[in-house]
Amino acid sequence: MKILSFGIEFKPDNKIILRDYLAIERTRLANERTLLSYIRSSIYLLLGSIGFFQLKDFPNFRYLAVISFVFSVVFFFIGLYRFAMLKRSLKKLYYMAKIKEN
């Protein structure tokens, strides 16, 4: 039983044709784009937390700065985890298809 599962397991039953190779490549590129989006959001939250730390007149914003820093780190690691998980899944799918093809 997987704790964090973002999709269903797929096992190819036929040979992969050109259309399927292109679909895998589009999915790989979308995965990279999503990783960059997570990194971008993480950097924005990090910059926001630094900005909140710089506000000297509002000491209550320190809590907001800490919360945004924590979410920044969490977003970064969630993005890395999802990227690695989908990359591993695509690699397994691709190799399974190659084995069936031969």
Structure overview:
The chain contains two helices and no strands. It is mainly alpha-helical. It has one domain (18-101). The longest helix has 41 residues, at 61-101. It starts with 17 loop residues before the first helix and ends with a helix. The relative contact order is 0.18. The mean pLDDT is 82.
Summarize the model shown:
The chain is mainly α and 102 residues long. It has helices at residues 18-54, 61-101.
Order of helices and strands: HH
Name the shape in a single word: rod-shaped
Uncertain parts: none
Number of helices: 2
- Rg from Cα: 20 Å
Roughly how much helix do the residues carry, as a percent range? over 70%
Structural class: mainly alpha
Give a short account of the largest sheet: none
Query: What is the count of β-strands?
Result: 0
Mean pLDDT across every amino acid position: 82
Instruction: Assess the beta-strand content as a share of residues.
Output: under 5%
Quote the distance from N terminus to C terminus: 31 Å
Ordered list of secondary-structure elements with their pairings:
Blueprint lengths: L17 H37 L6 H41 L1
Which labels suit this protein?
76% helix, mainly alpha, rod-shaped, 102 residues
